[in-house]
Design a protein that fits this description.
single chain, 358 residues, alpha/beta, Cytidine Deaminase, domain 2, Dihydrofolate Reductase, subunit A, 2 domains, nine-stranded mixed sheet, five-stranded mixed sheet, 18 strands, 28% helix, globular, binds ligand AOF, binds zinc ion, hydrolase, DHFR-like_dom_sf, metal-binding
Length: 358
């Protein structure tokens, strides 16, 4: 199952709107087939592994990271394919949250006398599929918030200088993280200040993450990196109702997808933006700032994971803070996260945190 989970994780960022599933087929203690859900969500993992196994699938055990599907979608049900291939046991940690499946895949397998074991490495599987579960159960994607800052949590000097706070190893790690998400998201301030391309470079991904900008007024440069490549790597813009019609037309003409969102105070309502991004198919979003967007997501308890890159550099109080005002007065109101990983990356340190849910 650990191998199946790692195969599944390879598909993260590539399979949306579907979950990235892994499958390993074992016969007499030998691995005879492996599969990962294909780019865009098809083929599913099981038929890939079954095709590799061929006749050896008869009497074998299939380890699948999610309940095999039971519905007739664009492909026939994986539960039926496993039954037809003569698989005698299926090990799958969790039930699928898609209403077309949820429990019926397991039921179908049991009905055909396939032994079903659930719960194996379920915590890891729940983390790996968290984006898909959030999308199907709560209608929003998972949000990973990335902060690359000085030791004192600043992302730029008072004059806006930010290149570079962290070193090349940390920046490479950022590209690897982008590749594992369906979309990279920034606020309008960051899009204006940094003119970022938000693409994955030097990693050879088959599917680039969607580039999302949250911009109430759509006051984004029409000559920058995002505008230039909008025809090739998707650009999705979450904007407010009052955005200038000429700007809407201009971005539409460049090939961007426009998502009108509700406002909350002077900003876009992050709940509405995420709801729309989820409805458009995204399961995992990598947010790279800036401080206002980071604060609005944290204030609404919409951050599931944090990734911090911390450099040995002190910028001081006049620098731009990584996270804008949260309006908190008490410590017990502050969103708290649980440490899951630390790694030294040359001169910098990476830490990963998950939302502590108590
Ligand atoms: C599996 N194995 O590898 C994946 C599954 O649109 P379709 O027909 O491709 O079905 C999408 C649904 O299939 C998706 O919502 C989820 O329930 C399941 N994904 N199931 O058996 C896989 N990716
Ligand atoms: Zn399937």
């Amino acid at each position: 199952m650990a191998l199946a989970l790692s195969l599944g994780r390879r598909g993260q960022g590539q399979c949306w709107p579907n979950p990235a599933v892994g499958c390993v087929i074992v016969r007499d203690g030998r691995i005879v087939g492996r599969g990962t859900t294909g780019p865009g969500g098809r083929p599913h993992a099981e038929p890939i592994a079954l095709a590799q196994a061929g006749d050896l699938a008869r009497g074998a055990t299939a380890y699948v990271t999610l309940e095999p599907c039971s519905h007739h979608g664009q492909t026939p049900p994986c539960a039926d394919a496993l039954i037809a291939a003569g698989i005698s046991r299926v090990v799958a940690p969790l039930q699928d949250s898609d209403a077309r499946v949820s429990g019926q895949g397991f039921e179908r397998l049991r009905l055909h006398e396939v032994e079903v074991t659930t719960g194996v490495l379920a915590d890891q599987a729940a983390r790996d599929h968290a984006g898909f579960f959030l999308k199907t159960e709560q209608g929003r994607p998972l949000v990973t918030l990335k902060l690359a800052s000085s030791f004192d949590g600043r992302i730029a000097t008072a004059t806006g200088q930010s290149k570079w706070i962290t070193g090349p190893q940390a920046r490479r790690a950022v590209h690897a993280l982008r590749a594992r998400h369906d979309a990279v998201m920034v606020g309008a301030g960051t899009a204006r200040a940094d003119d970022p391309s938000l693409t994955v470079r030097d990693l050879g991904v088959t599917r680039q993450p969607v580039r999302v900008v949250i911009s109430r007024h759509l006051d984004l440069p029409l000559m920058g990196q995002l505008a230039r490549g909008a025809g090739e790597v998707p650009v999705w813009l979450c904007h407010g109702a009052g955005a200038d019609i000429e700007r809407i037309r201009a971005w539409d003409g460049l090939g961007a997808k426009l998502l009108p969102c509700a406002a909350k105070g002077v900003q876009i309502d992050p709940h509405d933006a995420l709801r729309q991004l989820g409805a458009a198919g995204l399961t995992r979003i990598f947010c790279e700032g800036g401080s206002a967007l980071a604060a609005s997501l944290l204030a609404e308890d919409l951050v599931d994971e944090l990734v911090g890159f911390s450099a040995g550099l002190a910028i001081g109080a006049e620098g731009l803070p990584a996270i804008g005002a949260l309006g908190l007065s008490r410590l017990d109101e502050a969103p708290r996260f649980k440490l899951i990983e630390t790694r030294a990356l040359g001169p910098d340190v990476m830490t990963r945190w998950t939302r502590a849910l108590d």
